[in-house]
Amino acid sequence: MGRKRHSSLRSSKDDIEVVRHSPQTPQTQSSAYRLAFADDEFLTSEDLRGIRFQLEYTKIESRLRDAGINSTVVLFGGARIPEPGKPAWAAKTETAKKNLEENSVYYTEARRFAQLASMTAKATGYSEYVVVTGGGPGVMEAGNRGATDVGAPSIGLNIVLPHEQAPNVYVTPQFSFNFHYFATRKIHFLVRARVVAIFPGGFGTLDEFFETLTLIQTGRMERIPLLLFGKDFWSRVINLDVLVEEGTVSPDDVKLFTVVDTAEEAWEIVRKTYNLPEIAVEA
Q1: Distances in Å between the alpha carbon of 94 and those of 49, 80, 91?
Q2: What span, in angstroms and rounded, lies between the C-alpha atoms of 102 and 174?
Q3: Dihedral through CA 5, CA 6, CA 9, CA 13, nearest 10?
Q4: Are the beta carbons of 139 and 199 closer than 8 angstroms?
């Protein structure tokens, strides 16, 4: 957090400590007596949903601002895609296992792309082009791992899900965040984004792709490199030309993103967009 300012007033932390040592009486043990900001039952009540949105937004915003992180490179992609040579742990069928393991090539490309972004970030003192992922396994792990490969910090925006989930081990601990609300998490994915890279994935990946695309299409977000990795994968999954034919989107709308296959191809687009220097990274 930022540097603490001097104040002649007692702090909230001071009073929490005092209350913790209050005499144990029916009055002090009542929930009514708890300090409002130290009362979990009150803070998680329905009436304070708006405050919780604000808290989730502000906590991450203040920490990234204090760290001097101005812009990010966002990687979205499937949690189920394994590292090359590792089994497809999430496969439910033999066909899915085969395809997921073949798609491990995108783990490699995501890792490589994150290396390129992170070497650029290093030249800015890690204030620009810092890698951010959803903090989980698969493509997300590859992104954070690529940053770690070149000694760079990276951000993980995890979210509490019904099934067990923990941040991957490559997320920089001080930038390992956890969310309750998808809405505030989505804001933090895009509010600093200079690049969004979409790798093969499932419903969540499609959600993030179409949301980013819609924000750019409607002018709610500036046009940035929106990179779709995997020509073969995405050509079978989506066909936006149908929307053009049906007249539900304009022909230029399908030019708001670029389909690529390799990290080098993708980063060259980013480099030219922002007039960045060429940076070589050993394979």
Answers
A1: 44, 14, 7
A2: 34
A3: 50
A4: yes
Q: Tell me the C-alpha distance between 136 and 109, whole Å.
A: 17
Contact (CB, 8 A) for 68 and 192? no
Q: Over the chain (283 residues), what is each successive 10-residue block's mean pLDDT? A: 72 90 92 91 95 96 97 97 95 95 97 98 97 97 98 97 86 97 97 98 97 98 98 96 96 97 98 91 52
Asked if 192 contacts 168 with a C-beta cutoff of 8 angstroms, the reply is: no
Decide: pTM greater than 0.90. yes
User: How close are the terminal C-alpha atoms of the chain, in Å?
Assistant: 36
Residue pair 148/154 in contact (Cβ under 8 Å)? The answer is yes
Asked if 104 contacts 83 with a C-beta cutoff of 8 angstroms, the reply is yes
